[in-house]
Design goal:
Elements lengths: L5 H66 L2 H7 L6 H5 L4 H5 L3 E6 L4 E6 L8 H16 L6 E6 L2 E10 L10 E8 L2 H11 L4 E4 L6 E4 L3 E7 L6 E2 L1 E8 L1 H32 L4 H17 L15 H28 L9 H9 L8 E8 L2 H8 L1 H18 L4 E4 L4 E7 L3 H21 L7 E8 L6 H17 L5 E3 H4 L4 H17 L3 E10 L4 E13 L3 E3 L1 H11 L2 H23 L2 E6 L1 H6 L1 H13 L6 E6 L7 H14 L2 E7 L5 H4 L7 E4 L11 H16 L3 E5 L4 H10 L3 E3 L7 E2 H15 L1
Parallel strand pairs: 3-9, 14-15, 17-19, 19-20, 20-21, 21-22, 22-23, 23-24
Antiparallel strand pairs: 1-2, 1-5, 3-4, 4-5, 6-10, 7-8, 8-10, 11-13, 11-14, 12-13, 16-17, 16-25, 17-18
Length: about 750
């Protein structure tokens, strides 16, 4: 093949490859795909079997839960013992079985005699005798020696799901007082519902196969599933079909594909022979060589040489390639311009500022920097229109260019500008700043806009600070301080360096993160006591921070900062883990509960529940000894999320307290929608007791209301004996306050609890 033309070589090579490709498909790929399709159909059939089994198992589990809920119930126990005559009236309405999704319910006494039976409307029992016959037939199953808890039986009315359970008291004590039987008719409606859940059409028939049977042809796999795999006893089976989709589709695809491939291969050979036969190869290769040369040289001015004697498609392609190269060169120039220049004001942009600092020569002099924000620029755009806003920006850019002299000005944001001038000090920048303020106000008055103002921050960068990052960070600090103090001001970094609220906030954030990493926090515990007889019932965990340099930092100071910075979830996790770890032994030894607080952010982001489940799993701390306190002010506006959160805690076994009741305004309206266990009455209600008549009447009414609702109460802030006497007179509330103890470290809590035990002895 050495002397053959390129198109001939290409023709032979492609022909051989097409033949080989068809052979591989016919003898390798086709058997493989057929085998895989059979395996996929088998897997799909088994998945459908599992799905059908799961649907019936879920239905059985649902009936079992209903059966246990009604059978393990003192009211039902008393009813079959003839001690609860109002049971039927109170619990067995016309819609009870519909709501439960049950076909029939039969109550038997301990002698297996029918006490009461109720049937769903879909049972087609025309008269009382038919119902009695059906009931007696079911009772025979109960009285038979081989009765099982769950079964599928055939009756004169068709197959039914049959379930029974002894009727016992709610606490499980005593001998069974009778038997509860649940029936679910397996009729067309039932099978239709199960078919929807299983996503396939199901039918039921008497048992004809002793085990799972799958019969298949080219189209379907027909399955017979004995219900004994789901229920304890069943002489029925479920039948359904699964279409062999993968196998049929694969067969059709392969047959069609092989035919199409043969036609396509023949057409491709003929077309290729005619196309390659044209004299194009050499010219195309010449163009490729020139493109490679241009790529290697990376010179955007190079172009492909054109042949004026050729006017065909290849020549047009060469012209088009040159045009693309022209466009790329122009686009490169425009991109560089746009990348470093603002399109509206034509000033350099932030990238240009950064590039300037990257190429800044080493100098020994200071650099003067002025950052400028146009105050309320968005409001100006909204009020006067986008064109006026653009005109304002253009005017201001022109004034900056006028004053910059040998300096550098740029627009670094929508309403943010910067002036950089090597060698200028604060005094020169202040003069320019004042002039800019004056110019803008005069321009605004001409446009009918009063009180246009600027927020300006000035800084002098020493040689050690000559970097873009340092410059922008210092400007951000001083501009933040200007805006925090009301805007329309000129401040320098040197003016606010020692007293900046922004820097203090940054310092507080840094200190908080350091405190979390290095365990600077500690927990104090305030006892919650029952006065008569005196007993410590629980403790509330309260966080404290002793800063190494600043000393004691009040929670009222650092908790809001942690909330604002998004650190409260980390702080809350630390408190939860630390409190459970420290109090676990005391809780068991002194029969105490532990109360911890949770913030709104912890509720919304799910971090508290995650930390709680992890900690309870690691420590085996009893969930019923943990009380989670939700502050009243956290309730409003998040009722749904709070309900979900409380439900999750209830599932775990944790109790819920509403803390600081009375501080907010929404508690009473939410008491009926939140499943609370404990109300903690805020100390503001107690301060005026017993002197203030209004506080006395209000607190007395709250006690009566909460006792009526069945809520436990903790009264906070009890400090004086007369306050304690009032609380004891009108309630059985638990007490939390300085009268018994202030918050104390865990070491002092140990001595306090031991002293309490000794006092009781």
């Amino acid at each position: 093949m050495v002397d053959l033309r390129v198109q001939t070589k290409l023709f032979i090579a492609i022909a051989v490859n097409i033949v080989l490709f068809i052979g591989v498909i016919l003898f390798v790929i086709k058997p493989y795909f057929v085998e895989k399709s059979i395996e996929q159909d088998k897997a799909m059939t088994h998945d459908q079997i599992e799905s059908v089994t799961e649907v019936f198992a879920n239905h059985r589990s649902m009936l079992e839960r209903i059966l246990v809920d009604w059978a393990v119930w003192t009211n039902a126990y008393d009813f079959v013992q003839n001690k609860n005559e109002s049971f039927i009236e109170n619990n067995m309405g016309e819609e009870t079985l519909d709501n439960l999704g049950v076909g029939a319910m039969i109550f038997l006494n301990e002698d297996r005699e029918v006490v009461y039976s109720e049937f769903n409307q879909f049972y087609e029992l025309d008269n009382k005798n038919e119902k009695n016959d059906f009931t007696n037939e079911l009772v025979r199953y109960v009285n038979s020696s081989e009765v099982t808890q769950s079964a599928v039986y055939g009756t004169d009315f068709g197959p039914v799901v049959f379930m029974s359970h002894p009727i016992v008291k709610s606490d499980g004590t005593g001998e069974p007082g009778g038997t509860l039987v649940l029936i679910q008719k397996i009729g067309p409606d039932f099978m239709a519902a199960m078919s929807v859940q299983a996503k396939t059409k199901l039918s039921i028939s008497p048992l004809s196969h002793q085990r799972l049977t799958i019969e298949q042809d080219n189209q379907f796999a027909r399955v017979s599933l004995p219900l004994q795999s789901v229920y304890q006893d069943a002489n029925w089976e479920v039948n359904f079909s699964v279409k062999r989709t993968y196998y049929t589709n694969t067969q059709t695809m392969l047959e069609t594909g092989m035919l199409g491939l043969l036609v396509l291969g023949l057409g491709l050979l003929l077309t290729l022979f005619w196309t390659v036969n044209q004299i194009v190869t050499k010219r195309l290769m010449d163009i490729v060589k020139e493109l490679k040369w241009i790529t290697k040289e990376r010179n955007s001015r190079l172009r492909i040489r054109l042949n004026p004697h050729q006017q065909d498609e290849i020549e047009e392609m060469a012209v088009s390639i040159n045009e693309v190269l022209d466009a790329l060169e122009q686009t490169q120039k425009e991109s560089l311009t746009r990348a470093f220049r603002d399109s509206l004001t034509r000033l350099p942009n932030r990238l240009a500022v950064e590039d300037m600092f990257m190429n800044l020569p080493n100098t020994s002099y200071s650099i003067g920097v002025m950052g400028i924000d146009l105050d309320n620029f968005r409001r100006i755009n909204d009020q006067f229109g986008q064109r006026t806003g653009d005109a304002m920006l253009t005017f201001f850019a022109s004034r900056l260019m006028f004053y910059k002299e040998d300096g550098f000005v740029a627009r670094i944001g929508a309403d943010e500008f910067i002036m950089i001038h090597p060698g200028w000090a604060t005094e020169e920048l202040v003069i320019v700043a004042n002039q800019l303020v004056k110019d803008l106000r005069e321009w605004g008055l001409k446009q009918g806009m009063n009180h246009l103002s600027l927020s300006i921050g000035i800084d002098e960068l020493e040689p050690s600070h000559h970097s873009y990052e340092v410059m922008m960070a210092r400007l951000d600090v001083v501009l933040h301080e200007v805006k925090a103090s009301g805007k329309d001001k000129i401040l320098s970094y040197q003016d606010i360096e020692d007293g900046s609220h922004y820097l203090q906030a940054l310092e507080m954030e840094r200190d908080l993160r350091y405190a979390l990493r290095h365990d600077e926090f500690e927990l104090y515990y305030q006892p919650i006591v029952s006065p008569k007889p005196f007993q410590v019932r629980g403790v509330e965990a309260l966080i404290r921070w002793h800063h190494p340099q600043k000393g004691f930092v009040s929670p009222g100071v650092f908790i809001p900062v942690a909330e604002q910075l998004g650190l409260i979830s980390d702080v809350g996790r630390w408190v939860l883990v630390k409190a459970i770890t420290e109090i676990q032994d005391y809780a068991e030894r002194f029969d105490l509960f532990l109360s911890v607080n949770v913030s709104k952010r912890q509720i919304l982001d799910g971090s508290f529940l995650e930390a709680l489940e992890e900690t309870l799993a690691k420590t085996s701390f009893p969930p019923h000894r943990l009380h989670v306190e939700i502050t009243e002010s956290e309730v409003g506006g998040n009722v749904y999320e709070l309900q979900q959160f409380i439900q999750a805690l209830k599932t775990i076994g944790v109790k819920i307290s509403l803390d600081d009741f009375g501080v907010g305004t929404s508690s009473l309206s939410y008491l009926q929608s939140l499943r609370l266990d404990i109300i903690k009455i805020d100390q503001n209600f107690v301060k005026g007791i017993p002197e203030n008549k209004f506080d006395r009447a209000l607190l007395e009414g709250l006690y009566q209301t909460f006792h009526t609702l069945g809520l436990d109460i903790v009264t906070e802030g009890v400090e004086r004996p007369e306050q304690l006497a009032f609380v004891l007179e009108y309630s059985g509330s638990l007490i939390q306050g300085y009268h018994y103890s202030k918050p104390i470290p865990v070491e002092q809590l140990h001595h306090y609890l031991r002293k309490t035990v000794m006092t009781q002895i």
